[in-house]
Amino acid sequence: MNWSRIGPPIDVRPLFAVERAELLAVLGTLDEEQWLAPTVCPGWSVHDLVAHVVHDYMRRLSGGRDGWSAGWIPVPDGDIAPVLNRANDEFAAALRGISPRVLIGLVAGLGPQLDDYWATRDLDAPGISVSWAAPDVPAPAWLDIAREYTEFWVHQQQIRDAVGRPGADSRQLTYPVVDAFLRALPRALADADGTSVTVAVSAPVDDAWTARRGPDGWTLARGECDAPDARVKVGPRTLWRVATRGIEPDEALENAKLEGDHELARAALTLVSIVR
Prior knowledge:
The protein is an alpha+beta fold.
């Protein structure tokens, strides 16, 4: 896999502590009712989502830093979603008897350990597969780590939405999420007709990404394209929600401005940047 086809590497490692500080700040203000509030994740409360973040910290430290593989069943990318979903549900359910104070302590204690582990990684070395960018092949560590950052940031937004607390959506924190999610664009366009499509993302991101079709398929680069076949202007909130299937492409289209080939523009908004 020529990973340069989906754009240049990014290094999100300095942002984990910033994102986590925002999460801890909001969690420390929630009452019991808010901890039990439902979220956009079916069947999961705010408490469950925080437990899921803790689970992610534990999995990456155990498997990556510590090399612990006992109890893990290897599965092909195409079958990984149901296995992950079941493991996530079981962990969230197991932690429902754990108090918010303990959960906050786990986030605060495990997060810096994970930061230290990320700091040891060679960003060009093979990491875990990022199936929504290229299935069945190890992704470079920079993309694997960026995927983890997007997950933590999105879960924080889902928590904030559930309790009516906007925030953690500065350009510093949001831009890398959009940049990482758009690495799924070439795959989303694989069967689409056309030669170029630009996705322009409004404030606070204020940047654009262009996919172009060449002899070997679609490639992605930052920046506008002169006279693309299609251009989509969309807000970052709409983009991350459609990429994580918090909304469907038709709803995203209603909140986007399209120019040129509407079918190609619609294909761009079918991108999925999560395991499904």
